[in-house]
## 1
Amino acid sequence: MKRYKVAIIGTGGIAKIHADALKTLSDRAELVACVDIDKERVEQFASAYGISQSFTDAAEMLETVKPDLVHICTPPNLHAELSIMAVKAGAWALTEKPLCASLAELDAIQKAEEETGNYVSSVFQHRFGPGAAHLYRLIQEQAMGRPLVGLCNTTWYRNEAYYAVPWRGKWSTELGGPTMGHGIHQIDLFLWLMGDWEEVRAMAATIARNIEVEDVSMALVRFANGAMGSIVNSVLSPREESYLRFDFEKATVELSHLYGYGPDNWKYTAGELADPEEFRRWSAVPSQKYGGHTAQIAALLDSMDKGERPLVSGHEARRTLEFLTALYKAAFTGRPVRRGEIQPGDPFYEVIHGGYGKPGQKVGALS
Ligand SMILES: NC(=O)c1ccc[n+]([C@@H]2O[C@H](COP(=O)([O-])OP(=O)(O)OC[C@H]3O[C@@H](n4cnc5c(N)ncnc54)[C@H](O)[C@@H]3O)[C@@H](O)[C@H]2O)c1
């Protein structure tokens, strides 16, 4: 196993989670450099984590350090540009969510991947807990029968102080509200498990916070396998919860937690068609060595060792971003949106709000 040289760009809140995860995985990866436009912050970060080199310019760091892997932890509007810079400088990129601002940007990332042979992977740490991998395998085996009904609720709470950070709450920098920024984790996991989506109908609006982006959205989804699902994304919910529910022909599977889950957060309930012996196997959720970012980074290092495309990249990243774009299009146009219909030339291909999001204005208000 190779020990990789890693750099972090953006040393704010989430960068600490990345640095802690890299410390846990220090036999496989060494955090050798960090970058932030805020000199004092980057120097403090370097000293807290014993990182030998700090920079205030990403291009200079890439040129000087030539890292194998770059973690991009800046505000969302910079993700695509920095991811493309990283792969062009010879590194793989692990980019915080949301990976990019639009399907147009995703196509640019994919072009850079093709030109360089390096991959850009999106942080979706919820996919990497063993409980999710266990359920994915059961679904591939059709152990519990077809999925029929799914619920995906991200009911969180963010106050005005949270939105006082300048990049938050704006289409140009946060790129969206709880759909794009908070529910995105569960939506990604939900879509991966339920199978390919076909059609979405939705509503989204700014109903309480003083922000441009939506503070609540709701969607109904039809899947290619015939299943139906509903999705709620909110930052207005005082009792916070992340909740997924899957009703298969023979059993119901639920996941309830807040920002990270372990084996105990999963609940399997047998239906009348379940064989008790089989049910014991289904409901035996494996224990986990790592969770969260550490689990995803460990899996990414495995992909680097093998030179293989990492799980949440390419087609897998597109499924979720195309869905989010379709959700906004359905909400803002009031029409159902089918998978594949948002192509170059469609206003929603270029910008995720399709021109409906305006600086300083709320969205979705009743006229
Ligand atoms: N996966 C998760 O669970 C999770 C949780 C929280 C945040 N995030 C994501 O992480 C990202 C960062 O969020 P945060 O809360 O850490 O934000 P933050 O504002 O705390 O940190 C961002 C940092 O990036 C720096 N920065 C800005 N422009 C830069 C540039 N051009 N080059 C280098 N550094 C630059 C800022 O100075 C700041 O220090 C966001 O995309 C957010 O959605 C993910």
## 2
Amino acid sequence: MTKSPAERPLLLAVGGFEGLVGRALLREFHADHRLRSVHRRPSPAEVAAGVEVRAADAARIADWGPFLEGVDTVVNVAWYRQARRARFVALADGLLRLVQDAERLGVRRFVHLSVPDAPPGLEAGLPYLTEKRRVDRAVAASRLSYAIVRPTMLFGEGDRLLTVMSRIVRRYHRFPMFGDGGYHVSPLAVEDLARIVRREAELGPRATVPAGGPERWVYRDLTDALFRAAGLPPRYVHLSGRGAVRLAHLLEALGSSLLYAYEVEWLLSDRLGLAPYAGLARPLEPVGPFLARA
Ligand SMILES: NC(=O)c1ccc[n+]([C@@H]2O[C@H](COP(=O)([O-])OP(=O)(O)OC[C@H]3O[C@@H](n4cnc5c(N)ncnc54)[C@H](OP(=O)(O)O)[C@@H]3O)[C@@H](O)[C@H]2O)c1
């Protein structure tokens, strides 16, 4: 039986419904949940969809009680792609307070978005990862019923990887190839990730869940497919792995957000070809049709 709006469970999106994953969560949950969001810049789209928006920086919230009032499920998507160490530390501290308060207030289920394993050097020294892992560990050590979902490279409208790669191919008819391109990726549709979050939110066990898409691509085959989708023959500018990392450092130093050195190292380390997530009612979306429209 359909629940009246007042009877629907309340989902709090920490990080909101405006980022890549957040937008897909809004599409997935708005029909059968009451939604609340907390992030710094709530959007008109959220208001139009009936989300109860609370503008706040998660790093500065000392008491999550008012944000968690009546909440059944928390989904945390808040993170930065790049920032100074102090900003990562402050955000992680805020999220640790969220975990404590969610535990104290008896939130039914806590779904935390994390990332796959990275090379040991990055895991040990990159604030993006050391602080993310501090949050992961706090969730796992809590008494919460939780799922830590660790998706690989995501694709979907407005993503910052495949859509950007496709634009480069279409504009310049060339693409940089890092090393031999023999490492793997298994892109996951962001809409499938939203369905995974729903499924994990409904399950009971405390779990850490890697989530790959349906196909494990050799990276170079994927970039060849990008050229095919653009109707162009593949043409590469070859860079050694080290050269690619150096180039990304240079782009960073020039203030570009196109590509970060840690992303290149992660890709080259061959840790992003995760196995397909199993358990959704319908098959995971392959990336091919997306490449044709990107
Ligand atoms: N994209 C991928 O390929 C990918 C792959 C694996 C895992 N993930 C993980 O999935 C999650 C979501 O990724 P995404 O690609 O959707 O990122 P995104 O597009 O950058 O969205 C992240 C959201 O977090 C919010 N946020 C950031 N700092 C905040 C703060 N201090 N307080 C409150 N909200 C804050 C931002 O909203 P405001 O700016 O309005 O505050 C933003 O909309 C992240 O944890 C990411 O690590 C992403």
